[in-house]
Write a structure and sequence with these properties.
It contains 14 helices and 24 strands. The protein is of the alpha/beta class. The structure holds ligand EPZ.
C-alpha cells in the first residue's frame, strides 16, 4: 500500500495546469460505443477510474490505444452487452454503460453498481427514465437485465437532477425513435461536454447546461474527435491547497465560470481571487469562517465539500457545512480530528470551530475527495503527516504529489 509523507507549513506558490475532467471523460468514453469507428479523445487524464473504463470497453470488444493524454477508441466490433461484476463493483461510473449499450445493442446486462464510501448510490432514476423509453427491466440476483426491442423518445422528469441519470438518458435517446425531453436535468458542465461530443458524432441534442434537454433521435452516429473540458474539481482542490497554506497559486486551463460558487465562497472567507479567461489565482489573506450548503450545479459542488472543510478548520470563528447531495460524505472529519480539528457532525451538517493550527498525524484516506482533503490539511499542519490508502486519491487526481511539488509542497509517495 502506498502513502504520502507530507511536511506541512510550506506556503505554496506557483502555477498548476488542470487536467481534463474525469467526470466528463467517463461518460464520453462510454458514449463512443454509440458509433462504429475510431473516436479520438484528447486531454483524457491518466487515472485509475479511466483505466477501469478502458478495461470495460475492451471487454465489450473495443480496441483502445493511448498516446499520452489522447485515447483512440475503435468501437467497430462491440460483440457483447455485458459488464462483469468485478468491474462494476470497482467503479460506480460503469453505470454509464446502460444508455450506450441499450442504444447500440438494445440490450444490457450488468450487476448492481453497489454503493461506495459516500452513500448507497441508487440508480432508480436511471431505470425509470430508460423504462419510459421502452426498456424492459429485470432485476434479479444482483443483476440488472434490460432489453428494448425499440427504444422510443419520451417526456422524462427526473425527481432529482441526477448527473448520471441525465447522462444515461441522453445516451439512450440519441439513437431512439422520436424526441426525448429531459426535465429537471442536471446542469453540470460535464453534461454540456457530453452533448458537444455526441453532436459532433451527428446527434441532435440541445439544452445541456439548462434544466431541460431535448434529444431528437437519429438513425446512426459516426466517430468523431473531441477534447475533454478541464476538471473543475481538480482545479478547485489546487486552489484550496494554495488557500490553506496561505500561499499564492495560479490554476491554469480552467474556466472561472465552472467554479463561480467556490470563488464566491473563497472571497467571503477573505481570500483574494484574480481570474482571466483560462486561469484563477488565489492569495489567502485573513480567513474567517463561512456557511456552505452543497447543491447541484451551479451550487457549491459536493466534490469540493471535503477539501473546503479542511480549509475551514483553520479559519477564524465557526463555519457550518450542510451536505445535501450524499448521505455519508463527512468521513474525513474523524481523520481531521487526529490533526487537532474541532468539527462536530450531526447527520448532514458539520459545525467547524476554527483552530489556529493543525498538527501533523498519521491519517488514512477513506474515499477519493476525503483523501484529497487530508492532503490539504497535511500541507497546512505543523510537522510531518502520513496519508495512507492513497489509491483512493489516485482515482481522481493524476500524480497529485508531483503536481503539488511543482508549487513547493514537501510531499513524497512511498510504499508502506
Ligand atoms: C456524479 O455522480 C459524479 N460522478 C460524482 O463525482 C458527483 O459527486 C455527483 O455526480 C454529484 O455531482 C461522475 O460523474 C462519475 P448523482 P452520480 O446521480 O451521477 C441520488 C467524484 O468524486 N440518486 O447526481 O452518481 C444519489 O444517491 C464523484 O468524482 C438517486 O437517488 O451523482 C445522490 O444522493 C463522487 N437515484 C444524488 O442523487 C438515482 O437514480 C446525486 O447523485 C441517481 C442518483
Amino acid at each position: 500500500m502506498e502513502k504520502f509523507i507530507v511536511t506541512g507549513e510550506v506556503q505554496l506558490k506557483g502555477t498548476i495546469r488542470t487536467d481534463g475532467a474525469k467526470n466528463a471523460a467517463l461518460p464520453i468514453m462510454a458514449a463512443s460505443l454509440l458509433c462504429r469507428g475510431q473516436s479520438i479523445i484528447h486531454d483524457v487524464p491518466c487515472l485509475r477510474d479511466i483505466s477501469i473504463m478502458q478495461d470495460i470497453l475492451t471487454l465489450l470488444g473495443a480496441k483502445i490505444t493511448r498516446e499520452k493524454n489522447t485515447l483512440v477508441i475503435d468501437t467497430t466490433h462491440i460483440d457483447k452487452p455485458e459488464v462483469p461484476e468485478h468491474l462494476m463493483r470497482e467503479m460506480r461510473a460503469s453505470v454509464f454503460l446502460m444508455g450506450p449499450l441499450l442504444g447500440r445493442m438494445r440490450k444490457v446486462h450488468l450487476s448492481y453498481p453497489g454503493g461506495c464510501a459516500i452513500g448507497p448510490r441508487p440508480i432508480d432514476l436511471h431505470i425509470k427514465a430508460l423504462e419510459k423509453m421502452g426498456a424492459k427491466v429485470r432485476e434479479c440476483f444482483g443483476y440488472i437485465e434490460m432489453e428494448a426491442k425499440a427504444l422510443h423518445g419520451g417526456d422524462i422528469y427526473l425527481d432529482f437532477p441526477s448527473v448520471g441519470a441525465t447522462e444515461n438518458t441522453i445516451m439512450a435517446a440519441v439513437l431512439a425513435a422520436g424526441t426525448t425531453i429531459i426535465r429537471n436535468a442536471a446542469r453540470e458542465p460535464e453534461i454540456y461536454d457530453l452533448q458537444s461530443f455526441l453532436n459532433k458524432m451527428g446527434a441532435k441534442i440541445s439544452g445541456a447546461g439548462t434544466d431541460t434537454i431535448q434529444i431528437d433521435g437519429v438513425r446512426e452516429l459516426r466517430a468523431s474527435e473531441h477534447t475533454i473540458i478541464p476538471d473543475r474539481i481538480q482545479a478547485g482542490t489546487y486552489l484550496l491547497a494554495g488557500a490553506i497554506t496561505a500561499g499564492d497559486v495560479v490554476v491554469k486551463n480552467i474556466l472561472p465560470d465552472f467554479l463561480f460558487s467556490v470563488i464566491n465562497k473563497l472571497e467571503e472567507i477573505g481570500a483574494s481571487i484574480e481570474t482571466g479567461t483560462d486561469y484563477i489565482r488565489v492569495k489567502a489573506e485573513k480567513l474567517r469562517g463561512v456557511d456552505i450548503k452543497t447543491l447541484p450545479y451551479p451550487g457549491f459542488p459536493t466534490d469540493l465539500q471535503a477539501p473546503m472543510l479542511s480549509f475551514l478548520t483553520i479559519a477564524q470563528g465557526t463555519s457550518v457545512i450542510t451536505e445535501t447531495i450524499f448521505e455519508n460524505r463527512f468521513k474525513h472529519v474523524d481523520e481531521l480530528a487526529r490533526m487537532g480539528a474541532k468539527v462536530k457532525v450531526e447527520g448532514r451538517t458539520a459545525v467547524i470551530r476554527g483552530v489556529p493550527k493543525l498538527t501533523g498525524a498519521v491519517v488514512a484516506a477513506p474515499d477519493l475527495r476525503a483523501g484529497a482533503a487530508l492532503v490539504l490539511a497535511a500541507l497546512a499542519a505543523q510537522g510531518v503527516s502520513e496519508v495512507e490508502s492513497v489509491y483512493h486519491i489516485d482515482r481522481g487526481y493524476d500524480r497529485i504529489e508531483e503536481k503539488l511539488r511543482t508549487i513547493g509542497a514537501q510531499i513524497v509517495r512511498i510504499n508502506s
